[in-house]
Specification:
The complex is a heterodimer of chains A (121) and B (807). Chain A has 121 residues and is α/β, with parallel strands linked by helices. Chain A contains five helices and five strands. In chain A, strands 2-1-3-4-5 form a five-stranded parallel β-sheet, sandwiched between helices. Chain B is of the alpha+beta class and 807 residues long. Chain B is built from 26 helices and 29 strands. Chain B is rod-shaped, with a radius of gyration of 54 Å. Classes of the chains: A alpha/beta (121), B alpha+beta (807). The interface between A and B is medium-sized, with 27 and 32 residues.
Chain lengths: 121, 807
């Protein structure tokens, strides 16, 4: 078995994050959760994930700002980012900030997983 | 007189004529101012006093044997020629009753005309008539004056009725003949300095032809010191009181001309120059012929008077021609002018214009009838004085009018003025425009003013209306909250309104853009520059700007620009939409919260169901089925919420598209693969699949195709096919989705893409927003969407997207 791919979910809705975690782990991914930008930074000190799933609506720093910072970071800039939001209108913003894909909540799980698989190296 | 008669009565009838005469005191009779003649019973004049001789223009008594009519032609007041028997004295002899009559005597030899009131009384002694005494009351001067006044009056009246000076001159000549002259001719200087015969008038047309023929065959010599050219050059009157055959023989060498001249029978000629404002305009010739009358020295001043009038006519005529030219510019009048022969006259009345002439010294102010009407007077009621004129003017304007005239006279210049009428005080104002010239005499002293007056009330009203409009505009301009700038076409600020003053400190005379720049961020600066460029090319433009008044205070403006809103001026209006923007932002915020809050629980439910599905695989098989159904319901609710939010977005104009390069073939193939799962009871058949790269919003176009396919499934029987084909040409990428369903009646087609419309569906679920949203998405791509449908034969929905989007 190849090395497990790790996904960092940045999502303030704890329940939703946990449910996603459950589903993705079930698909064989290693999943970690951060509830805001700050937490994400802490997590990144220890591990670098293979892919980000970022919610747009976050307390403090927004999802798009985080994506922009990722794209500016020497180590992180080439990692795939999937942005999710219940607000469908931010899709354009999400794509322009440097996200690789945008999923509108409620997410249909099947396409979500295929997209992740597609984006992972 | 009584005494005379009494004295005379003391003589016997048988006394011889000479005795009778001698017994009158010639001294007494001579000193009487009236002419007195005494006739014997045979009607022969046996005595005439000095006054009588003067009246009859004779130095000696007519021969007794010859009747008086041999020497004179005698007419009554009506112009009927009288015979010897018609004379009052003759009637006295017949009837023995006193007679009285006004008579005109024309001396056959001298061509002199005199007028007298003749009273004839019988001389009676002892009941027997011994003779007749005639008393002559000389009316010549009176009559001459009377007829001249009448003549001049008729001139003023008739000549002003037409303004074309040639017509007026012709009318003048017609008036002159035969009262003042048997012949009248007027020659005007042309542009080459030569004389053109403009008018020749005589009561006999044959004679006119003769004169014209002569004038053509023997035109006057421009270098001559006499005749018309002589008068023109010298500017002095040429007067030939009596022309004799000898004179013609002596002065005219050409035989033919001699013959013609003799035929014309000229007896007396006066040639006068036509001079107006020290400018020689031509000459006027008066001549007597067959009437054998002769001009006297004292006629000259009268003829000069006529010449002055004629000169004025010519001069004014030219002035009027100019006026009319100006009037012609007014199209309305022009059209009417064309329809009418008497163009000038019509122009005058159409423009409510009249002519005036004021002789300052004598305070004679002549007005044409039109001018009287303009001033609110009935025709012929103007008193002809300056004070009467002043009395017609609005009290507030009198001072100004006086001042203008005084200035014009003092500086000898043309003047223009406008005044109101007194008659219109407290009513609608009536305005008169008057313009004129100051005419100088030979010494350069102002002697008369002449010009035209015009009713300009309508023009004034129009001006006032414009002024009012301007005032209205000003008050709106300054009372609205919008900031308004008026700039030149090159962008220099010329005016700003109160609204603009409140927001910016903008200087007049400097370019708007450089002044406004400091308030704008880079993005707004670019927007505004582009907006002004668009204004120049398109004439109107619009944009939205964000202005920073301070760090934490931002103002939002809706900008509307209009080019040449008045000639060569642009109007730029900035409407403060800060509040509106804030409102919109609040609404925006609400929407994003709403969409977030509505979807988030669904998102959670969906994941719960997803997880449940996994766990249910180990439990009761029914559980999986129920969970799958619950999931479908969640998807349905999600779609409804999405549709509702989409519609709101579209209506707010905030449906943002994200364009990506898309390979059409794989895009549609993948999409259909997913869709087939959504409509498992139908078979989707891909007929044609173009392969190109286009710029589209993948998600939104997928939404459209999904919509169309699910619709197709919804309205057709399970087991039927849904056909999809995509084609591409130079301009468009086109996708068609065809079903074999129930189809649509033609009457539903126009409203198919309208909001909240559900077509024919009666028992189908959904809000009916799908087609509206789809169409809007296609529209936003710059494409179009059409439908073809027949009942029972299915429907075909087609959308085409431009290959090269400018969005």
């Amino acid at each position: 078995m190849t090395q497990q791919k790790s996904i960092l979910i940045i999502e303030d809705d704890e329940t939703y994050a946990e449910l996603l975690e459950l589903l993705l782990e079930e698909k064989g991914f290693e999943v970690d959760i951060a509830h805001n930008g700050q937490e994400m930074c802490q997590k990144l000190r220890h591990n670098t994930p293979n892919l980000f799933v970022i919610d747009y609506n976050l307390p403090g720093t927004s999802g798009t700002t985080i994506t922009k910072r990722i794209r500016q970071n020497v180590i992180l800039k080439n990692l795939p980012v999937i942005m999710v939001s219940a607000n469908h209108d931010i899709r354009k913003k999400a794509m322009e900030s440097g996200s690789d894909y945008f999923f509108a909540k409620p997410i249909s799980f099947q396409p979500f997983v295929s997209k992740i698989t597609e984006l992972l190296p | 007189m009584e005494n005379v008669l009494i004295k005379q009565n003391s003589y016997s009838q048988t006394t011889s004529d000479s005795n009778l005469t001698r017994n009158f005191s010639e001294v007494i009779l001579s000193s009487l101012p009236h002419g007195i003649t005494i006739l014997n019973t045979k009607g022969q004049i046996i005595f005439a006093n000095k006054a009588a001789k003067k009246i009859l223009y004779t130095t000696r008594l007519p021969q007794k044997s010859k009747p008086i009519v041999n020497n004179y032609e005698i007419y009554d007041e009506k112009g009927t020629k009288l015979l010897q028997k018609d004379l009052p004295s003759q009637k006295v002899l017949l009837t023995k009753k006193p007679q009285e009559r006004v008579l005109r005597f024309w001396h056959k030899e001298y061509g002199i005309e005199t007028w007298s009131q003749v009273t004839s009384q019988p001389l009676i002694e002892n009941g027997v008539m011994i003779g007749v005494i005639n008393v002559f009351h000389d009316l010549t001067t009176l009559k001459k004056t009377e007829s001249r006044i009448a003549f001049l009056n008729s001139l003023s009246e008739k000549l002003t009725s037409s303004l074309h000076y040639e017509i007026r001159l012709k009318k003048l000549a017609e008036q002159i003949v035969p009262l003042i002259a048997d012949w009248c001719a007027i020659d005007m200087i042309n542009s080459e300095g030569k004389l053109d015969r403009v008018v020749i008038s005589h009561k006999d047309k044959q004679k006119i032809k003769l004169a014209q023929k002569m004038h053509k065959q023997f035109p006057p010599d421009p270098l001559s010191m006499t005749g018309t050219y002589g008068v023109l050059h010298s500017g002095k009157v040429e007067f030939h009181p009596k022309i004799t055959e000898q004179m013609i023989n002596k002065n005219v060498p050409d035989l033919k001309m001699k013959k013609m001249l003799k035929k014309l029978q000229l007896s007396s000629v006066v040639i006068l120059p036509l001079i107006s404002r020290n400018k020689k305009l031509g000459v006027i010739t008066f001549a007597h012929s067959e009437s054998r009358r002769q001009y006297q020295q004292d006629d000259i001043s009268f003829l000069k008077n006529i010449a002055t009038k004629a000169a004025l006519l010519c001069d004014n005529g030219k002035m009027y021609t100019t006026v009319v030219k100006t009037l012609k510019d007014q199209k309305k009048i022009e059209t009417r002018l064309r329809e009418n022969k008497d163009t000038l006259n019509l122009a005058l009345s159409a423009s409510r214009m009249g002519v005036w002439d004021w002789e300052k010294e004598s305070d004679t102010l002549i007005w044409t009838e039109q001018l009287e009407i303009i001033h609110g007077l009935s025709p012929k009621t103007f008193k002809g004085t300056f004070s009467h004129f002043l009395s017609l003017i609005h009290p507030e304007d009198i001072k100004r009018v006086k001042k203008e005239l005084a200035l014009a006279i003092r500086e000898r210049k043309n003047f223009e003025m406008e005044y109101r009428l007194r008659s219109a005080v407290n009513q609608h104002e009536r305005w008169i425009y008057s313009t004129g010239e100051v005419l100088l005499n030979a010494k350069g002293k102002p002697v008369r003013l002449t010009g035209i007056g015009m009713d300009i009330t309508e023009r004034k009203n129009y001006e006032n209306e414009i002024l009012n409009r301007e005032k209205k505009f000003r008050s709106i301009y300054n009372s609205v909250t919008e900031a308004m700038f008026i700039t030149d076409t090159d962008g220099i600020v010329r005016d700003i309104n109160a609204g603009a003053e409140k927001i910016f400190s903008i200087k007049i005379g400097e370019p708007l853009i450089t002044q406004i720049q400091s308030f704008l961020d880079d993005e707004s600066n670019n927007t505004f520059t582009a907006c002004l460029e668009e204004l120049n090319s398109k004439g109107v433009s619009q944009c939205e700007l964000t202005l920073s008044q301070s760090v934490d205070k931002k103002l939002y403006f809706d900008v509307l620009c209009k080019k040449n809103f008045i000639p060569d001026k642009n109007l730029i209006v900035l409407r403060d939409i800060t509040d509106l923007t804030h409102e919109a932002k609040r609404r925006e915020h609400f929407l994003s919260i709403a969409s977030h809050e509505l979807r988030s629980p669904l998102a959670n439910i969906k994941i719960y169901l997803e997880l449940l599905k996994k766990f249910s695989k180990t439990g009761n098989p029914k559980a999986f089925e129920y969970i799958t159904k619950a999931e479908q319901k969640v998807d349905m609710v999600t779609k409804l919420i999405n549709d509702l939010l989409d519609v709101t977005r579209i209506r707010e104009g905030k449906l943002d598209l994200y364009f990506e390069f898309t390979e059409t073939k794989s895009y549609i193939q993948n999409l259909i693969k997913d869709l087939q799962l959504v409509v498992p009871q139908h078979t989707i058949i891909i007929e044609k699949l173009a392969n190109e790269t286009v710029m589209i919003d993948r998600i939104r176009i997928a939404q459209v195709i999904t919509n169309l396919v699910t619709n197709a499934a919804k309205y057709s029987e399970p087991g039927t096919t849904i056909h999809i084909s995509s084609t591409i040409n130079k301009k468009y990428f086109q996708v068609s989705i065809r079903d074999r369903g129930i189809g649509l009646s033609e009457k539903y087609l126009p409203n198919l893409f309208v909001l909240y419309n559900q077509g024919t569906s009666t028992n189908k679920s959904g809000l009916g927003l799908g087609l509206y949203i789809s169409k809007q998405i296609i529209n936003q791509h710059g494409g179009k969407m059409t439908v073809k449908s027949t009942i029972e034969n299915g429907s075909t929905f087609t959308f085409s997207l431009p290959r090269e989007t400018t969005l």
